[in-house]
Amino acid sequence: MVDLAVGVVIGGAFGKIVTSLVDNIIMPPIGVMTGGVDFSSLKFVLKAADPATKATEVAIAYGMFINTLIQFLIIGTAIFLIVKALNKAFPPATAAPPAPSGPSSEELLAAILSELKTKP
């Protein structure tokens, strides 16, 4: 039970590290390569804000989705590599070899037939 709690705490901290990695290290160079685009501010505006009625803007923030998708790919890759390394370091125990099976049906029938032939 304690192992699970430790895993949750470490996972939460790892999520913060990945968020910082994506936001501060990976996305700025990608933004420069795409002409200075900040992915987190990309959005498709469905309805603009109206200051007269104090209505807020309605938008689909697909840039934030792109950031989250990149974070997911990084976390997924990291977890895959960690699990792969653990499986290599601690291989599963091999199953005991199966017990030798008895004679087949044909062999049993042949043995019975030979015994019947030897009886008068």
Short summary:
This is Large conductance mechanosensitive channel protein. The chain has 120 residues and is mainly alpha-helical. Helices cover 62% and strands 6% of the residues.
Notes on the structure:
The chain is mainly alpha-helical and 120 residues long. The protein has a single domain, classed as Non-ribosomal Peptide Synthetase Peptidyl Carrier Protein, Chain A, CATH 1.10.1200. The chain is 62% helix and 6% strand. Strands 1-2 form a two-stranded antiparallel ribbon. Helix 1 crosses helix 2. The radius of gyration is 32 Å and the shape is elongated. The N and C termini lie far apart (71 Å). 2% of the residues are buried.
List the keywords.
6% strand; 120 residues; Non-ribosomal Peptide Synthetase Peptidyl Carrier Protein, Chain A; transport; single chain; membrane; 62% helix; two-stranded antiparallel ribbon; 2 strands; MS_channel
Distance between the termini: 71 Å
Which sequence of strands runs across the widest sheet? 1-2
CATH topology: Non-ribosomal Peptide Synthetase Peptidyl Carrier Protein, Chain A
| Count of beta strands | 2
What is the level-2 CATH architecture name? Answer: Orthogonal Bundle
Specify the structural class. Answer: mainly alpha
Poorly predicted segments: none
Q: List the total number of helices.
A: 3
Count structural domains.
Answer: 1
What's the average pLDDT? 83
Give the helix level as a range of percent. Answer: 55-70%
Which helices and strands occur, and which strands form pairs?
Layout: H1 2-33, E1 44-47, E2 58-60, H2 62-89, H3 105-118
Antiparallel strand pairs: 1-2
Helix pairs in contact: 1-2
